[in-house]
Amino acid sequence: MHQHQCKNALFCTISSAFPHQTPPAGPTLPLPRASPRPASHPIPALHPHPPVSTSTRRAGSNRINSVASPTRSPFTLRQRLVLAVVPRLIWALLSVIGRTWRFQLVAENGVTPLPGGEGAGAQIFCFWHQCVLPCTFYFRRTHATIIVSQSFDGELITRILNLFGFRTVRGSSSTGGHEGLLGLKRVIESGCPAIFTADGPRGPIYRTKMGPIKLAHLTGAPIGAFHLQPRSAWTMRSWDRFLVPRPFTRIVVSWARFTHVPADLPVAQLEPMRLQLNAAIERARLQALAHLGDAAR
User: Is the pTM of this model over 0.70?
Assistant: First the structure.
């Protein structure tokens, strides 16, 4: 009899788990009632499946596809390989070769140069795009912030600069420039320096863009102008005549006078300030060439 009752209890348990089955007839042994859970131990909510956002609650396979689709990389496989290898390769080469360069400071009258950028605060600095390579090594300890384009080339440059201790905000003169300026504005307001390649990213060569002038107008920060000119370098056939200093060469670090943009200056009068900054950077370049005895270059 006891064995028969146990079998009936087992059938009841199975039928409760599978309600579509009909339990066998016959007497059953009543199941013991569970003791109530104390109020201090509420029953936890069970989530056998992750919640689905309202944007994906559609009928059919469309909902499944939208949940399962991974985020696609904006770069091709070849570009991802380049981003994984090239930045560290350039960082390693430049770190070794840069230590063979000898830097010499020159400055216009009344200008106090900043050796290696030490002591730079809430200031803006500008130079021509052609001397990016020596500038990256020379100013690596400033942890300055640089505006970089949102393209693949910009991503490559960002990763290289980060390895040298620089910070970046994304934007350019053609795409995302407004967001980039707002990012640099926060940098200046925090007491840190910001840097522009004044004629970048695509030229024309030796022509300052309006970005640094707008930032100075927003923040009241002064704009420093400098140029790094190597005595011996390979010159690339690019729009900016990009300079690659040779090992063990001497590099002149030339400073020109700062440009000040009053915060209350009308927007219509910003163009003369751009021309003034343009002239300062070009004076720094010519001063470096003259110091090297190559003013006719």
Answer: yes
